[in-house]
Amino acid sequence: MASLYSQPSALCFSSAISDIVFHSNAESGVLVLDLVAGETRIHVLEETMYPNGDGSVAVNDVSSLVEPYVKKYLQMSMECSFTDTAGAASITPVTILFSMADVDGAASDFTTNHFLTVLNGEKITARGREERLYAYGANVVTVTATLQLANGSFGTQTASLNAASTTGSISQFDVSPDNIVMLLGLSTARLLSYIVEAGNRLQRFRCVTDAVSPAPSLLFTNSFGCQEFIHCVGKHKKDSKYDRKSTRIRGFMRNYLVTEERKFTGNTGWLNEAMADWADELFRSDEVYLWVDGVRGREVFISESKSEINNEDDNMPAFEFTYAYAQRIHNVMQPEHAGRIFDNTFDHTFN
Predict the structure, then answer these.
(1) Cα–Cα distance list, 152 to 62, 192, 208, 255 (Å)
(2) What whole-number distance in Å separates Cα of residue 134 and Cα of residue 143?
(3) Model confidence, pTM
(4) Model confidence over 7-41: pLDDT tens digits?
């Protein structure tokens, strides 16, 4: 009769799933592997397997098998069984979370102690910027804010923040400075910094005053399949190029095909050490959107990037990258903005 020899941990990231190994004395058997998300069941694998000389039947490189499916749902349950002529053996269902990061530890430890982001330190933000955090297994966080009061003194204030949405066991929290100000009911006090906590999970934010509005602000999918924001405050440049195909028609030269390629160059501006490590998430992301006037804009793709860090004492990293609209038509009409000569991918100081 088939028996289970080893299986992955109860909670795994899709990037690191150990082998599934059964044992059987039979000549062959049928191995079935399914993934389940809510009411959706995906039949990933059903194969006749022949045990090795030592009677083992192994499913290797499970990560490659399940990754495309878990990427879509972010959280799935994995079931696997092996049935020979004498009976069946099954694994205990395994919860798999999407991840394209090596967290150097167990998924259960990471999700207990970290939000679903590779940012491992303070994030600099400002009023008007959007910020999100995601947590596995927590739908309420505690926000502790440091304030400068109207009389010039300093104080702290604490409040609970409920998840904006929850899918499976993954909750999204709107931790934008403006939302924190509204949560705390601040009218005259100035928000200096705040800490977001959920159990052992902790993320610090420091509020600055933007000298210019960020340009661009980008919404991107991180290594855990969750969407984060990066707000660039460095130089922003637009460069349009045209590929013209011409011929002589009825004695006159005509452009019969004009293809426009509009490229933008963005710069993150100076980053602290934690944000410099985290900013690479933008460059490895396969889903990036402009964030324009408080809503998700057009999808873009990053064609070039340079993220260089060194260990010199005076190193202040700032990363430059080139991006373009993902769509075929680059002749994009922008909403009306009175008095502005640049489109709305540029900040309001360009007028």
Answers:
(1) 58, 12, 17, 65
(2) 14
(3) 0.88
(4) 999 999 999 999 999 999 999 999 999 999 999 99
